[in-house]
Design brief:
With about 140 residues, this protein is mainly alpha-helical. The chain has six helices and two strands; from the N terminus they run ααααββαα.
Length: about 140
Amino acid sequence: MVQVNNKVFSNFKISSESAIPVYEQIKSELKLQILSGNLKPDEQLIPIREYSKLLQVNPNTIVKVYYQMDIEGFVYSKPGSGYFVRDFKRSLKVEKAELFEKFTDDYIQRILKIGYSLEDVNNYMKKYVKKLRDKKGGKK
């Protein structure tokens, strides 16, 4: 039996307040875990039934996520063994940028819904970046 990194999978929680569909949230989280190196090439993903129980979603949702990630080149399947992280040759820079854009879009949409303006978001982000730089001693 292959050991699965359950810690990576158990830290993720679905946001019921998000406008993003559940399967997209799960897919984005898995991509994040792969792109950040928390899931390594050839590491087994949690089995479909187990992951659906953990997230309390229909197993078909996990099937859809794994299938789409297979098509996108992030994972591959071994019949009878499950899904594994692919050692993909895609540009990490492009994938990370796409993920960053999705997260940023979701954040900004939420902020706008509660009444803040884009100028408010911009001002906050400038303050936040300055705070982070000051905390790290001016390093980027």
